[in-house]
Design brief:
Blueprint (H helix, E strand, L loop, with lengths): L17 E4 L6 H11 L2 E6 L17 H6 L2 E2 L12 H17 L3 E6 L2 H9 L9 H14 L1 H11 L1 H5 L6 H14 L3 H10 L11 E6 L3 H17 L2 H10 L15 H9 L7 H21 L5 E4 L5 H12 L2
Parallel strand pairs: 1-4, 1-5, 2-3, 2-4, 5-6
Helix pairs in contact: 1-14, 3-4, 5-6, 5-8, 6-8, 10-13, 11-12, 12-13
Length: 325
């Protein structure tokens, strides 16, 4: 069993950086590019889907012109066959912050993977490492019972984590049950211990978290629907067909569990009606946005800007200017 008094892995102090977060379709890319027009920045992507090569349309990856306008990092760095962990992100992002600063630029971290932000801000806890045997046993149980049944089991041992996970979120349900079975402690126990730890030195006073959050949720829902329609029109299904045609990818990979890709894979498999793909994809994206906003509201010290305000970009630039006049 893990010792509850085990020390957290608290990172050393980093140079100053700006963090720009928000739910999907909140306008993060436009805000980042607006900052880049005013400041000599390099952008570090904080997005667990943008790391994958060949997944461009369904992830709303920045265009070639946008990528060329300002240096971007942690985009297209991983084949979809291989996972990319929060620990890898923290190591990569920390090194990039140091390197970008050394080049006389300002690091700008932009994205919506809140777990990555939290790991960078608060440090990584000494949670149990992956146990292939336990993970295989959980996968076998899921095959026999279904993920909703394992979600119900998780709710009995870790109700806090279960409450924020969808019953079909196989990756996170599996990890939470694995942590419980290996350590005897819940995943929420480790997260809470991290939250209660003294603030690590990485939270430089000038390292600000700007959070784009909608005042009117219907505004965000409309943008999500528009974005999904745009992706479908741009050939999203063909993109997923090409990934399937490789022959080495499958539906349980983290890359193929990304919102949109999971629904498209199921539709192409015939396990879900093709005519329901749009509605299911939009619904799943709305649920993702809801979880992202919940994560953001738990982060202390964030500076909230209403992304649906007419002057949202001006507010973002004013916030940055107050820190870097």
């Amino acid at each position: 069993m893990v010792n509850p008094r085990m020390k957290l892995q608290s990172p050393e102090k980093l140079p100053a950086y700006i963090a720009l977060a928000g739910p999907t379709a909140s306008g993060k890319t436009a805000a980042a590019l607006a900052i880049a027009l005013q400041y000599p920045v390099e952008i570090i992507s904080v997005d667990s889907a943008l790391v994958y090569r060949g997944m461009d349309i369904g992830t709303a990856k920045p265009t070639a012109a946008e990528l060329a306008a300002v240096p971007h990092h942690l985009i297209n760095i991983r084949d979809p066959l291989y996972a990319y962990s929060a620990a890898e992100f923290v190591a990569d992002a920390r090194q990039l912050v140091v390197d970008i600063t050394a080049r006389g630029k300002l690091p700008l971290l932009v994205g919506g993977t809140m777990l990555y932000f939290k790991a960078l801000f608060d440090g990584l806890d000494d949670m149990p490492k992956a146990d292939p045997g336990v993970r295989a046993a959980i996968a076998a149980e899921a095959l026999a019972k279904g993920w909703p049944a394992l979600h119900a089991e998780l709710a009995t041992v870790d109700p806090v984590t279960a409450a924020r996970l969808a019953p079909q979120d196989s990756q996170r349900i599996s990890r939470a049950l694995e942590v419980w079975r290996v350590s005897g402690q819940s995943l929420s126990f480790f997260h809470q211990r991290t939250a209660n730890a003294p603030a690590p030195a990485s939270r430089h006073p000038a390292s600000t978290l700007i959070s784009l959050e909608p005042q009117d949720r219907s505004w965000l829902h409309e943008r999500i629907a528009q974005r999904f329609d745009t992706m479908l029109a741009a050939g999203f299904l063909d993109e997923v067909k090409a990934l399937r045609a490789r022959g080495d990818l499958h539906a349980d990979l983290p890359s193929m569990r990304c919102v949109g890709y999971r629904q498209a894979w199921e539709a192409l498999d015939g396990t879900s009606p093709m005519n329901e793909l749009r509605d299911k994809g939009i619904f799943a994206t709305r649920q993702l946005a809801k979880r992202q906003i919940t994560w953001l509201r738990s982060m202390p010290g964030r500076q909230v800007i209403a992304c649906d305000a007419p002057d949202a970009l001006a507010q973002v630039l004013a916030t940055v200017k107050a820190l870097y006049p």
